[in-house]
Amino acid sequence: MNKEEEFALGFAKLETQRLKNTTQPYEVERYLTEEFSFNINDDHASTKVYYVLKKAWTEGVLEVFIRNNILRDTLEVKDLVAFDAARFVKLVLEVLKLKLIEEKEAWGLLFLNAQRVQDTFDNAKSFTKSFLKGALFYDILFQSDEEDREEKVQRFDALFQALYERSEVALFWLEEEIFTTLKVAKPDAHQNQIIAMQHLLAQEDKTKLWELIDSFTQEERNASLHQLYVDKKSITAEDYLELPALYPDVSYAHYLRAVYFYHYAWEARGLGLTNTVGQKNYALFYERLRYARADLKKAYALSPHEQTYWAELYNLVKHFKNKDSDHLEEDLYTLIKENAMDNAFCIQRVSHMKKARWGGSHQESLAWAREVVAHSSYGNSLKIILFEVLIEQYKYIVEYDKDEEKAEAIFANEALQKEVNQYFDELLEPSESSSKLRDTLLFWYEKVGDVRRLEKLVKH
Fold first, then answer.
1. How far is CA 324 from the centre of its chain?
2. Distance from C-alpha of 437 to C-alpha of 442, rounded to nearest angstrom
3. Concatenated DSSP letters of 46-57
4. CA distances from 57 to 61, 193, 316, 324, 370 (A)
5. Cα–Cα distance, 40 to 27 (Å, whole number)
6. Any idea what DSSP says for residue 299?
């Protein structure tokens, strides 16, 4: 076993230690059934298992934490990331034992999981502490009686310290980035552009960064500019704040600070439902959004033809309800419809704000998807948006309306089936369809129960 494999597998040691101290034994079949309503004996189980793995990867206990008010002031998001990461390794290994995935696929998932851990943590000690906090949260929420729960919340720090002192797991930590040492597929030209931009962003003098972005074609900027912001890892909050003063005539400088303020606003608000956000948090949220709006409008004024600014500003002004914002929203929407219907970032930004969960409606969202499809040429992967908005409707109805029957009716609607089926073959036609596109198609056709198309997806 090489060091990359040792690192990727090692997180499971913490989960194994946790399971030894629980009263209920770990049975993967029961776990899959209870957590994911997945039966390993179902037809096409090897296809359906990807939904399980994707759900475990994208949601997990972190999603539960976001939806609950327990320990909000005690835990950090990274604590749930660590807990989910360790459980994910255990799940992948168990699914591999059941022969529902191939070994090569399992390693791919494990290495991606390891990369997420490296992106979040600097060392084994930090990861172990976060895992134990996440594990304690899970125990309090799911394995404690109502009477014990409040007491455990009050004693959380002492219980965590006891867990940490008892832990016997010593993790190996890989210092190098896992995909660098593995030397897997080389980055393509688009990835190289992003890497180059983020490297120059970390330098004190940003002149070379602005020159690099200017050298891109419009299509290259459309694909790359929105990926320039890198949080506060290689560049500090203070660096973002002073950019417009240092480069007042450079639109990218104003854009970067705007994106910083946008993320900073969501830090204040949090990811919970509207009724879980306090008044002070909302006040901070809108104060920071106003700063972001001012910077984005300045970037837009300096470079009115930059399509990324159209998309970002459209997304932002939708949060404000006044005449100026409404007029700007209409202008930007017109610009996008007339000039950017082949720009995936613009299309997704509009689609995002037309969703019911962000103030739009199912009808608006579907109408926009149909406009995109009508504009797209044969084989254009943007047509997947039609499947995406219908799946989003299903998830919204389940999550907010609590109406499983109404949600499932979407997949039984023959008119909708006929509408999306006409794009199935052309979406699969490229020899290397993206994994996200395939996951979306798999989800749809598993729900519909279309065995023929599921088999074609598996073979593709």
1. 32
2. 9
3. HHHHHHHHHHHH
4. 10, 27, 28, 41, 30
5. 12
6. H
Q: Summarize pLDDT for 213-269 with one digit per residue, the tens.
A: 999 998 999 988 988 886 655 678 889 999 999 999 999 999 999 999 998 888 887
Dig out the tokens for 223 from the structure: 């694909």
Confidence check: pLDDT of 120 > 50: yes
Short-list 378, 363, 368, 377, CA closest to 429: 378
Mean pLDDT of the chain: 87
N-to-C CA span, the chain: 31
- For residue 115, what are the contacts with CB-CB under 8 A and spacing of at least 6? 177, 178, 179
* Nearest partner of 247 among 298, 291, 288, judged by Cα: 298
| Cα(369)–Cα(34) distance, integer angstroms | 34
For the chain, the residue count is: 460
Q: Residues 438, 457: contact at Cβ < 8 Å?
A: yes
What is the reported pTM?
0.62
- The residues, ordered by sequence, that sit 6+ positions from 8 with a Cβ below 8 Å of its Cβ are 89, 107, 110, 111, 113, 114, 178
DSSP letter at 403 equals: -
Question: Class for domain 186-323, per CATH?
Answer: mainly alpha
Ramachandran angles phi, psi of 304, nearest 5°: -65, -15
Report residue 185's pLDDT band, with 50, 70 and 90 as the boundaries.
Answer: very low
Residues 6 or more apart in contact with residue 228 via CB below 8 angstroms: 194, 197, 198, 201, 213, 252, 256, 259
Contact 349, 315 (CB under 8 A): yes
Q: Give Cα 449 distance to the centre of its chain.
A: 27
248 burial type by CB count under 10 A (0-12 exposed, 13-18 middle, 19+ buried): exposed
Instruction: Residue 212: count other Cβ atoms within 10 Å of its Cβ.
Output: 15
Q: What is residue 316's three-state secondary structure?
A: helix
Tokens encoding 46 = 């090897």
Residue spans of the domains in the chain: they are: 3-182, 186-323, 355-460
Q: Taking residues 336-354, what's their average pLDDT?
A: 94
Q: Which amino acid is at 91?
A: L
